[in-house]
Design a protein that fits this description.
Elements (H helix, E strand, L loop, with lengths): L2 H23 L4 H12 L8 H4 L2 H29 L14 H9 L9 H30 L3 H42 L7 H15 L7 H22 L3 H6 L13 H6 L5 E2 L9 E2 L5 H51 L6 H31 L7 H11 L1 H15 L3 H15 L5 H7 L1 H17 L12 E2 L2 E2 L12 H27 L21 H14 L11 H31 L5 H19 L1 H29 L4 H9 L3 H7 L6 H32 L14 H19 L12 H48 L6 H10 L6 H22 L27
Helix pairs in contact: 1-2, 1-6, 2-9, 4-6, 7-8, 7-12, 8-19, 9-12, 15-16, 15-19, 15-26, 16-23, 18-19, 21-22, 21-26, 22-23, 22-30, 23-26, 28-29, 29-30
């Protein structure tokens, strides 16, 4: 696309719609409604070209110019008719809100006397602005398009034929992204303001995305969905625009104008909201309703964007079909002409041409014969095709999407506390901890039921997002509190609906991965792990992907299609994996400490602290025992955390405190000391988030990093030694890098340096990454060695600071251990262990003393020697 064509497209597709939209929303009458219709028809028009300007686009601009000129002329004639009655009788028959004035005003013709400048401009300027803009845009497009040369079109046609094969894959990806964008806009249009009309968007979105998650493809039928959305959303936009008119609001009164809610039931159910109203005291001014929620004002804009985007997609689809039909016709016409020409042409008349063609064909055949053996050899020696970096990342993320589904299940349950979401919490915990199969298989095989359950929750939330009263849609049914089931009415229902749709998106991905693996396992049962999915097949089904993967299997030497990952991404992934395997256990310990010290002290947190101190002491006493019990200890902590989370979660329901008190006989204060108390909304989320995140972090450690950590921390019989290169190895590595760099930078025979090719950049990047990795490892070893040497000093200094800060009898043990350890270096390790063990006991005792159930007056005593008399002492 040339610069002039791009400029014409921007003027026609951006500048003109903005003017039409402004003319449609600054006033609400029949003339502005015509401009709205013109705006809605504009995306269906092709971009200005020499052909389109002689067809649909040119006709559209001409019709728009005629309509704008007619509007300006009719406005002028209407004012002339009013002035014909006399200057003093101007508009005397058009009294506010009478039958004649009401009709003419809603058509777009009003009196213009006694109006401020702003209102006068709002009523008159839109027609003039649209008329001038339409004429200017038409003239500019004609000037820009007609100057295009035929040479450009021919060059463009040639370049299209040569680049068509290269752009085919990119076109499929772009088309898939565009279709996904259409579906997302449909979801936004359905949840921004729940109503009976928007339920069509919501349900159609669920149908589309569920079909996709079942590893199915709509194919060309998706265009029919877009055509249906186009007509329905266009009707919806026009209906909302008409509802701003006075006569429509008189038929269906808006919510703000009546007191009895039964009279506006249909209005609220259909989602017809009044953004502007008419005041009969001054009907020519615009009155914006200010007490509406923000989704009411955003809803028309979202619907208009959805309509315009869908119209653009439908226009591309229809133009594509039309272009295919024209190309087929041209091919048929050209073949018919060739056949007719061959029958009528005499071969004797063109002997030289025939000889040239025969010689050229023979030469081409000889070249093909010569090239065949070389291509066969090349194909035999050709290595297996490697997946791109993006493909490797997508394959890994797709394989691990079940973890995202489990995390989302727990996040959904703690974000929206109810009995229905409590099922998701138990579901996720069961998948984490059950010993049947692997976690991935349990998550994938339960994904169909999970998607069905999540969609039921979405439908319930959509119903309770309707603008209905408590009598029409109750939240309390007798003694049953429906809010505890999750049937809650929110002030802005679009927010929970949008969040829950995002949560369900991970479930849809997991379900699609499950069905995809089930289908593709039949093709290649020998493949280990996940079968890589081509990028252009993300939005396709088995009918499109299976043939592509079969073709890829034929190219592979071992008939496997899950090999040949990107080497760069594999190396980076292994480095990250090793880093997480080494340090993720520190995050587990930190989370255990955070859970212990979070908020107020209770028995639950004291047990967490006891577990933390236990594993720390075992780590210090014997590292071999620590490695042996780390996995059972992690499972104990996870099971305890799950039980604690379930108890805290269920205790937040309305009748559970009384059930606990009546069933166990334990008082409410004792339950609070135990850790069971009811929280507010914000505190509840925090108190549920911390143990949930704690469970997730520990389960990730168990499933991914534990075995790797055991291999890395294995103690060899030869003992520990700093890993470093020998002198010869280091000299050889340095010399090899130096030689390669000198070879890459030295001038060639022609006196020129080698250029920065892609292979050279890749080699330089590998060298830099290797050097950075080695430097990081060396720096880490130095830091750990310094800590090993000086850690005892840090411990002694810390203990001294604590002892000086708090002078007590308990801390006297620390002083004694320090003075015993300083003169004897061999006592450092024993002293450190004794300090840690005593500190653990002191810490637990201090946490227990924080419980209010223990009264300090019962066990604290004191002596007052100032009141004692000398005579009371026994004689010597």
């Amino acid at each position: 696309m040339s610069g002039k064509t791009t400029a014409a497209a921007i003027i026609f597709k951006v500048f003109l719609p903005c003017v039409l939209l402004a003319a449609a929303i600054v006033r609400y009458n029949g003339l502005s409604g015509v401009y709205l219709l013109c705006l809605m028809a504009l995306p269906l028009m092709p971009n200005p070209t020499k052909i389109s300007m002689a067809g649909r686009t040119g006709n559209y601009m001409k019709i728009l110019i005629v309509l704008a000129c007619l509007a300006c002329t009719s406005q002028l004639l209407f004012q002339v008719v009013l002035l014909s009655e006399g200057l003093f009788l101007y508009g005397s028959q058009l009294q506010p809100c009478n039958g004649t004035e009401n009709l003419w005003r809603q058509l777009g013709f009003q009196r213009l006397d006694n109006l401020p400048i702003s209102t006068l401009c709002r009523l008159i300027v839109p027609d003039i602005m649209v008329c001038i803009t339409a004429i200017v845009v038409y003239i500019i497009c004609r000037i820009l398009i007609l100057r295009q040369n035929d040479v450009i079109t021919t060059e463009r046609s040639i370049s299209r034929t040569t680049k068509r094969k290269h752009l085919h894959q990119t076109t499929i990806i772009i088309q898939g992204v565009q279709n996904a964008m259409t579906v997302c806009l449909c979801a936004v249009a359905g949840v921004i303001l729940p109503s009976a009309i928007s339920a069509v968007y919501f349900l159609s979105f669920l149908i589309i995305i569920t079909w996709w998650s079942l590893y199915k493809s709509w194919g060309s039928k998706f265009n029919l969905w877009m055509l249906g959305w186009l007509m329905y959303s266009g009707t919806h936009v026009i209906l909302l625009y008409l509802y701003q008119f006075q006569f429509f609001q008189e038929i269906l009164p808006p919510e703000a104008d009546i007191v009895d809610s039964s009279q506006d039931f249909l209005t609220r159910l259909l989602g017809l909201t009044a953004i502007v109203t008419t005041d009969c005291a001054e009907p020519r001014s615009i009155n914006v309703v200010k007490d509406q929620h923000w989704p009411v004002y955003v809803n028309p804009l979202v619907l208009l964007i959805f309509y315009l985007y869908t119209a653009w997609q439908v226009r591309i689809w229809m133009d594509g079909d039309r272009n295919e039909q024209t190309t087929k016709r041209r091919r048929r016409h050209s073949t018919d002409n060739r056949e007719n020409g061959n029958q009528s042409t005499s071969y004797e008349a063109l002997p030289s041409v025939q000889i040239d063609l025969a010689s050229s064909h023979s030469q081409l055949r000889q070249r093909r014969v010569k090239k065949q053996p070389s291509t066969n050899v090349a194909s035999e020696d050709k290595p297996a095709t490697k997946t791109s970096k993006f493909g490797t990342i997508m394959a890994y993320v797709t394989k691990q999407c079940f973890i995202g589904a489990l995390v989302v299940m727990m996040a959904w349950s703690i974000t929206y506390h109810s009995w229905l979401t409590f099922v998701l919490l138990l579901w996720a915990c069961a998948i984490w901890i059950l010993p049947v199969g692997t976690t991935r298989k349990r998550a994938l095989y339960t994904s169909p039921i999970l998607v069905f359950y999540a969609e039921c929750l979405l439908c319930l939330q959509f119903v309770y997002g309707l603008n209905l009263t408590s009598e029409e849609l109750p939240t309390q049914k007798g003694h049953l509190n429906l809010k505890e089931l999750g049937l809650v009415k929110y002030m802005y229902p679009c927010i929970p609906l949008g969040v829950q749709l995002l949560f369900t998106g991970m479930f849809w991905l997991t379900l699609r991965q499950f069905w995809r693996e089930q289908c593709l396992a039949q093709i290649c049962p020998k493949s280990k792990g996940i079968i890589l999915q081509p990028v252009e097949m993300i939005f396709s089904g088995p009918n499109e992907e299976i043939p592509a993967l079969k073709a890829k299997m034929k190219q592979s030497s071992d008939n496997l299609i899950d090999r040949a990952h990107s080497q760069a991404m594999s190396a980076l992934g292994n480095m990250i994996w090793e880093l997480f395997s080494k340090y993720w256990i520190l995050l587990c310990g930190a989370m255990l400490l955070i859970v212990s010290l979070e908020s107020n002290v209770d028995i639950f947190k004291i047990i967490y602290m006891g577990l933390f101190l236990l594993i720390i002491n075992i780590f210090l006493l014997n590292f071999t025992v620590f490695r042996f019990i780390s996995k059972p200890f992690a499972w104990v902590v996870v099971l305890y955390s799950v039980c604690t989370l379930v108890l805290i979660y269920t205790y937040q329901f309305e009748n559970f405190p009384d059930m606990w008190t009546n069933g166990t006989g334990i008082s409410m204060e004792t339950l609070e000391y135990l850790g069971l108390q009811q929280y507010g909304t914000q505190d509840l989320f925090i108190n549920l988030l911390i143990p949930t995140a704690f469970i997730i972090i520990f389960m990730v450690q168990l499933h991914y990093f534990h075995d790797r950590f055991l291999k890395m921390s294995e103690i060899r019989k030869s003992g520990y030694s700093l890993g470093k290169l020998t002198e010869d190895e280091s000299d050889g590595a340095g010399r090899s890098r130096l030689v390669t760099r000198q070879a890459s930078t030295c001038p060639s025979a022609n006196g020129e340096r080698k250029r920065w090719t892609k292979a050279r950049i890749k080699e330089e990047t590998k060298d830099l990454m290797h050097t950075a990795s080695q430097q990081t490892m060396n720096g880490t070893r130095v830091i750990w060695r310094l800590l090993e040497i000086h850690m005892v000093k840090f411990v002694i200094c810390t203990v001294v600071i604590v002892v000086v800060h708090e002078v007590t009898a308990i801390n006297y043990v620390f002083v004694l251990l320090i003075f015993l350890a300083i003169p004897f270096p061999r006592m450092y390790r024993i002293a450190s262990m004794l300090i840690m063990m005593w500190l653990s006991v002191v810490f637990l005792v201090k946490m227990i003393c924080q419980l209010e159930v223990l009264s300090a007056d019962d066990w604290m005593t004191g002596c007052n020697y100032t009141d004692m008399k000398v005579s009371s002492l026994p004689p010597c």
